[in-house]
Amino acid sequence: MLYLAPPLCVGCYGVVLHCVAATNVIEDADVFFSYLAIDVVLSALVVNVLPVLGLDTLADFVERRNPGAVLPLMGALLGIFALNVGANIGEGDEVYTTLFPLGLTMLAWGAYVVLLVGATRYAEKSVVARDPRSALQLAVLIFAGSVPLARQSAGDWVSFEGTTRDILGAFPFLAGLLLIAFAFQGGVARRTSVTQVYATVIFCGLACCASLGIPADGTWSA
């Protein structure tokens, strides 16, 4: 099942891309499949970068029989999916109108994930303590960080300055998600409670819903 996740995400991205992408992307097969290839590369990058952050998902899940280890990877793959979809929503005549917002959101999301994993105890509790509830919290937080960024990169192309300004508008929500992460991580020696998991999911959901209303230069709206 784990090995089906990346191709499944890429397949879903292809379907969504065909529905929401700019007209020139849908009508040009070369551009369409190029964007699919970018999604594949980014997904592979995530799989290879997570072990550097202490989340060796494949080894923990397959070799050490830690079922919760797969959850952060799923959250990361869904995050890549969201960022790719967001960057492709709206009209833009050139390739850079997709790659520029995608690149900015990937950098911002990557910094958010590094800070989330490095400054909290979720990764340690997921891998060392084998706490599946902490792994679920981490997965939710990783994915939630992509939603405000994806929303802000969506919309018809206006300018480099407008796109940058839009994406910067997501940063307060990323800070809020980090505060949620700190608030509900719990102690190292104690297993995460169900209440902490529910609170993480609920507050992250509220933050993501609120982020859909961020003012943006692009004309797309939720």
Structure description:
There is one protein chain. The protein is mostly helical and 222 residues long. Helix content is 72%, strand content 0%. It has helices at residues 5-20, 23-27, 29-49, 57-63, 70-88, 96-119, 122-127, 132-153, 160-168, 171-183, 194-211. α6 runs parallel beside α9 and α8 packs antiparallel against α9 (160-168). The longest helix is centred in the middle third of the chain and has 24 residues, at 96-119. 45% of the residues are buried. The model has no long low-confidence stretch (mean pLDDT 81).
Give short descriptive properties of this protein.
222 residues; mainly alpha; 11 helices
Q: Gap between N and C termini, in Å? A: 32 Å
The largest pleated sheet is described as:
none
* Overall strand count: 0
Residues in helices, as a percent range: over 70%
> If helices are DSSP runs of H or I spanning 4 or more residues, what is the number of helices?
11
Q: Could you say which structural class the secondary elements and strand pairing correspond to?
A: mainly alpha
Low-confidence stretches: none
Average pLDDT figure: 81
Radius of gyration: 17 Å
The oligomerization state is single chain
Q: Approximately what portion of the residues adopt beta-strand conformation? A: under 5%
Q: What is the N-to-C succession of helices and strands?
A: HHHHHHHHHHH
Shape, principal axes of CA atoms: globular
Q: In short, what is this structure?
A:
The protein is mainly α.
